[in-house]
Design goal:
It is a single chain. This protein has 350 residues and is α/β, with parallel strands linked by helices. It folds into two domains: 3-16 and 265-348, Aspartate Aminotransferase, domain 1 (Alpha-Beta Complex); 21-258, Type I PLP-dependent aspartate aminotransferase-like (Major domain) (Aspartate Aminotransferase, domain 2, 3-Layer(aba) Sandwich), CATH 3.40.640.10. The protein has helices at 21-30, 42-55, 67-76, 92-95, 100-104, 122-130, 157-169, 181-188, 230-236, 245-255, 259-279, 301-309, 333-348, and strands spanning 60-64, 83-88, 109-113, 139-146, 173-178, 203-207, 217-221, 285-286, 294-298, 323-326. It has a seven-stranded mixed beta sheet with strand order 1-7-6-5-4-2-3, with helices on both faces. A three-stranded antiparallel beta sheet has the order 8-9-10. Helix 8 (181-188) links the parallel strand 5 (173-178) and strand 6. One of its GO terms (biological process) is L-threonine catabolic process. It is an enzyme of class 4 (lyase).
Length: 350
């Protein structure tokens, strides 16, 4: 078992990385002595206030264990069972949450929208809303936007405003899946408020795990009316941690001195290095613009098989026909260069 954890860093998922030093130190500090449970501790209060400072606004903050719970419970707070949720066809809430959004909303239907590079198009929103307006059709009520997208791309400020404005025009409440929100902020170089509440986002699922925390996501309600009784949803769903400080303390460590943005920038830069090197290898083709910490590359099956045989781990099921390579807070230049060298060697043999 010990040897298994001494293997090289991989590109399968940014979930595979360990805990970053800032989060680990905060956890160790929170582990000293006793503290009240169920979120009534000073760490949770401090983390919530720090998140309010990051977004420069009053907001309600809740900490849950994982992204599926964050997304599903947040969407459930926006909908009734007879409503529908609009999202991109490759969105995580559709492809990788085992029907949890429908389950926790008591049956709200998820309707899929098209769009290039993993981004929803405004005309697709209008088409879904106007397709039918009779009582026999699940009434569209929520728009779910993924920032950064499942394809590693990001909505620019203009694109975000266009999509959200379209949704608001039809009375849709706006949810943002921000599992890699830090990477999007780091890439765009904007303040967090500019791509959330100032753009019209009602609730954000702010990801921490993929950015170097051990566990825990924050559900941030900018429309505080929508947060009423959300604590009951968390409790009912098994998401009210008794030792809540071990979910919230990491946020204190990450938000201090902008560690969350520093780690995101590093992961993004490693992905750009990886993209640039792979783009120069014949027979490999970059599928989507690398705008955050993920690289999608189309490669022959012989190359994929060869990389697997050499011990590399990465996913091939996220996007049809593509290998997805995720960089993390701890990915190094040496990791990237070693992977590229093996990919190049295999491609040259074809």
């Amino acid at each position: 078992m010990k040897a298994e954890f001494q293997t090289r860093r991989q590109f399968a998922s940014d979930n595979n990385s360990g805990i970053c030093p800032e989060a680990f130190a905060a956890l160790a500090e929170a582990n000293r002595g006793h503290a009240p449970g169920y979120g009534n501790d000073p760490w949770t209060a401090k983390a919530s206030d720090m998140i309010r400072d990051v977004f420069e606004t009053k907001c309600e903050v809740f900490f849950v264990f994982n992204g599926t719970a964050a997304n599903s419970l947040a969407l459930a707070s926006l909908c009734q069972s007879y409503h529908s949720i609009l999202c991109h066809e490759h969105a995580h809430v559709e492809t990788a949450e085992c029907g949890a959004p429908e389950f926790y909303s008591n049956g709200s239907k998820v309707l899929l929208l098209s769009g290039k590079d993993g981004k929803i198009e405004s005309k697709a929103i209008e088409g879904a809303v106007m397709k039918r307006t009779d009582v026999h059709y699940p009434k569209p009520r929520a728009l779910s936007i993924t920032q950064a997208t499942e394809m590693g791309t990001i909505y620019s400020l203009d694109e975000l405003h266009k999509v959200i404005d379209t949704g608001k025009r039809f009375g849709l409440r706006v949810h943002m899946d921000g599992a890699r929100f830090a990477n999007a902020v780091a890439s765009l170089g904007v303040s967090p408020k500019e791509i959330t509440w100032q753009a019209g986002v009602d609730v954000l699922c702010f990801g921490g795990t993929k950015n170097g925390m051990a566990v825990g996501e924050a559900v941030v309600f900018f429309d505080t009316e929508l947060a009423k009784e959300f604590d009951y949803r968390c409790k009912q769903a098994g998401q009210l941690a008794s030792k809540m400080r071990f979910l919230s303390a990491s946020w204190v460590g990450m938000l201090q001195n902008d560690a969350w943005l520093r780690h995101a920038r590093h992961a993004n830069s490693m992905a750009k290095r990886l993209e640039t090197a792979l783009a120069g290898i014949p027979k490999l083709k970059i599928s989507f613009p690398c705008e955050t910490n993920g690289v999608f590359v189309r490669m022959p099956q012989a190359v994929i098989k060869g990389l697997y045989e050499k011990g590399w781990k990465f996913y091939t099921h996220v996007s049809p026909d593509d290998a997805r390579l995720m960089c993390s807070w701890d990915t190094t230049e040496e990791d990237v260069d070693a992977f590229v060298a093996d990919a190049k060697s295999l491609a040259e043999k074809l």
